[in-house]
Structure formats: structure tokens, C-alpha cells
Amino acid sequence: MLRIRLTRTGRTKQESFRIVVAEHARPVKGKFIEVVGNYQPAKIPKVLKVEKDRVVYWMSKGAQPSSSVAALLKKDGMPNMEKYMAKRQSDIKKKGEEAKGAAAPSAPAAPPAPAA
User: Fold this and answer.
1) Could you state, in order of their start, the residue ranges of all structural domains in the chain?
2) CATH topology for 2-87?
3) What is the pTM (predicted TM-score) of this model?
């Protein structure tokens, strides 16, 4: 399976990343098929350059973006990236609390029984 993922480059505390298309089983710093962009979070403002046409091409061939790349692509304006983004524990917990609140309205607490 092909993945569109980040490969770290750059020096210590000055990280930069390449956005690459690689086989899922390959090591993160191993061989890749094509570089489709780069991301530099250490710069102010953060720099994200992506060849969107190549990303769309590889996705049409079956490549799936990693959750971090999907989040970056979503910020850059690509549609339908939510389905590739990993569910965060905080999001799951909030949805569970909303479902509980909607299913059972909260009743006022009954006063405790007097001790005999």
C-alpha cells in the first residue's frame, strides 16, 4: 500500500519535512517514490509547499495520506481529508459525553435519605 507521509530532514531544533510517496512497509527514512512537497514548521510563519496535482494523482492510484499529512493538506485547502485524519482521544471523549447528554436528560439530584 502506498502512503503519503512526512520524512524528517533538517538539523536538530530546526526541523523540516519532505512530503513523500512511499511504500507503507518501507522505513520512514528509507526509499521513496516521489517528493510531492515540503513543510517547514520551524520558520515563522510556517511554510507548506505541496504539489496538489501530484497528490491527487497518487491518491487516484490508491495512495493514502497519513493523518498528519491529511491535517496539513486540509489546512492547505484540499477537500475530503477528514476521513484520513486519526480520531483523537479528546474528540472521542467529547462525542461520548454529547451522546450521554442527549440520550438521558439530567435529573435533579434527590436529597439523601436521613440516617436512622
Assistant:
1) 2-87
2) S16 Ribosomal Protein; Chain: A; (3.30.1320)
3) 0.72
